[in-house]
TrEMBL record:
This protein's name: Excinuclease ABC subunit A
Subcellular location: Cytoplasm
One Gene Ontology term from the biological process aspect of the record: nucleotide-excision repair
SUPFAM superfamilies xref list: P-loop containing nucleoside triphosphate hydrolases (SSF52540)
Region spans: Disordered: 493-515
Organism: hydrothermal vent metagenome
Domain ABC transporter: 160-489
A molecular function GO annotation: ATP binding
Cellular-component GO terms for this entry: cytoplasm; excinuclease repair complex
Principal subcellular localisation of the protein: cytoplasm
NCBIfam families assigned: uvra
The keyword Zinc is assigned to this record: yes
CDD domains for the chain: ABC_UvrA_II (cd03271)
UniProt keyword annotations, A-Z: ATP-binding, Cytoplasm, DNA damage, DNA excision, DNA repair, DNA-binding, Excision nuclease, Metal-binding, Nucleotide-binding, Repeat, Zinc, Zinc-finger
Length: 515
């Protein structure tokens, strides 16, 4: 702008440029400025708020961030860490809850909580510089950082049968550029790419909606595409996300996984219950009869706070036990129904070890690493990762046909290295049963254990929307154009050079197969 108008605009334009640069620095260069806020992922919204704070230039502020690396590709991660360092150097205190290895290693001070999860945690196990935590034998995080424990790749990849593929022709939703997608059937496939490259559009909006409409009879409208072939190879599609398993105090792991019905039948079958004429419904907190009517079986009373979120207070009548006195008089092996719901999964597995229908379901909860949650734990108190693993456990406990398509979007969100190892064990088990597992993921430990990788890019937004590389992790790592491949290469090299490379270990082994 010429003259006086240019002088007026100079400071404004400088401010606009700086704020836009902050958005680029936190990996959001692919977003359009008029993008609706409700379409942003949690990680994107958090990074936009972070950029606005940097733009404010405040000093002496304490910033608390909960997993800012969610949904961020490794390429953009370094820019995010530089941004956090910049905030610190301004004179602020930055506290980050994080599982990302690069973020942990770049911290000035680490506080490691543990030693386990749930009732087994709640203590500061180690704290100090990253080196001090790495050298502390009590720290599980330190063991993974030092290489004492690690998530190993498979001994042998499961071969891709080119005759057994799900094919989507010319997918063109959002920024996709007529993408032809081939998903190997019976394998674990990772879909990778920088943020905004089109992964969610291709998998969630196109593949999942197509499969849900054709296999599950859903009325979802898929993103634009020309055709699809190979859907007859599946009998159903399951999207296992991190949304809550329920939003009220009535929802809990026991009801969600189907444990509660056989437990109620056991109580109804006791001699005392039969003599009183109690049926399984007596032990339900969803219907009248055995429940506490003051709280209607919730164990808590909801207090509506106008203009604020509702709060829940313990019920004065049943003291949060959900049931009336007569129902609590009935005991199975010395425990009443409330005491059983208060058991952890590991305690319940021992208590019900002689009841096959319960023992099998409880074992799947143990397999996904949820030994510490309580059977009757309020679903709203479960983290996203815990809710997702409860869903996985329910899938594992079903008698599957081996023809299911499982779709997961960033399942490692909120998971520690140890939890990721447990999760991978379960996903490979689903795959070993003949099912097809498709995962959108940035975590390199997950990508390196996949049978097949499809990398989108090369950039985000309009610069993406193409398949840059597909093949085994080794083949993608060899592709120079692939940003994912460039980060995967040193991980695979480190894997090969590790002293126990190729050794059989507990955990992730791929099944032998023929192409």
């Amino acid at each position: 702008l010429p003259g006086r108008r240019g002088a007026i605009a100079e400071k404004i334009v400088k401010e606009i440029r700086e704020r836009l640069q902050f958005l680029v620095n936190v990996g959001l260069n692919y977003l359009s400025l008029d993008r609706s806020a409700d379409t942003l992922s949690g990680g994107e919204a958090q990074r936009i708020r972070l950029a606005s704070q940097i733009g404010a230039g405040l000093v002496g502020v304490m910033y608390i961030l909960d997993e800012p690396s969610i949904g961020l590709h490794q390429r953009d991660n370094q820019r995010l860490l530089s941004t956090l360092t910049f905030l610190r150097d301004l004179g602020n205190t930055v506290i980050v809850v994080e599982h990302d290895e690069d973020a942990i290693r770049s911290a000035d001070h680490l506080v490691d909580m543990g030693p386990g999860a749930g009732i087994h945690g709640g203590q500061v196990v180690a704290q100090g510089t990253p080196d001090e935590v790495i050298n502390n034998p009590a720290s599980l995080t330190g063991q993974y950082l030092s290489g004492v424990r690690r998530i190993s790749g498979p001994d042998q990849r499961t071969p891709n049968n080119l005759q057994n593929q799900l094919h989507i022709n010319k997918a063109s939703g959002n920024n996709l550029k007529d993408v032809d997608l081939d998903i190997p059937v019976g394998l674990m496939t990772c879909v990778t790419g920088v943020s905004g490259s089109g992964k969610s559009t291709l998998i969630n909006d196109t593949l999942y909606r197509l499969a849900a409409a054709e296999l599950n009879g859903a009325s979802t409208e898929p993103a634009p595409h020309a055709s699809v072939e190979g859907m007859e190879l599946f009998d159903k599609v399951v999207d296992i996300d991190q949304s809550p398993i329920g939003r009220t105090p009535r929802s809990n792991p026991a009801t969600y996984t189907g444990l509660f019905t056989p437990i109620r039948e056991l109580f109804a079958g006791t001699q005392e219950a039969r003599s009183r004429g109690y049926k399984p419904g007596r032990f339900s907190f969803n219907v009248k009869g055995g429940r506490c009517e003051a709280c209607q079986g919730d164990g808590v009373i909801k207090v509506e706070m106008h203009f604020l979120p509702d709060i829940y207070v313990p019920c004065d009548v049943c003291k949060s036990q959900r049931y009336n006195r007569e129902t609590l008089d009935i005991r199975y092996k010395g425990r009443n129904i409330h005491e059983v719901l208060e058991m952890t999964v590991e305690d319940a597995a021992e208590f019900f070890s002689a009841v096959p229908v319960l023992s099998r379901k409880l074992q799947t909860l143990l397999d996904v690493g949820l030994s510490y949650i309580r059977l009757g734990q309020n679903a709203t108190t479960l983290s996203g990762g815990e809710a997702q693993r409860v869903k996985l456990s329910r899938e594992l406990s079903k008698r599957d046909t081996g023809k299911t398509l499982y779709i997961l979007d960033e399942p490692t969100t909120g998971l520690h290295f140890y939890d990721i190892e447990q999760l991978l064990r379960v996903l490979h088990r689903l795959r070993d049963h003949g099912n097809t597992v498709v995962i959108i993921e940035h975590n390199l430990d997950v990508i390196k254990t996949a049978d097949w990788v499809i990398d989108l890019g090369p950039e985000g937004g309009n610069g993406g929307g193409e398949i840059i590389a597909c093949g085994t992790p080794e083949q993608v790592a060899a592709c120079e154009r692939s940003h994912t491949g460039n980060f995967l290469r040193p991980i695979l090299e480190r894997e090969q050079n590790h002293p126990d490379a190729g050794a059989t270990r507990e955990g992730i082994n791929t099944r032998q197969g023929t192409s």
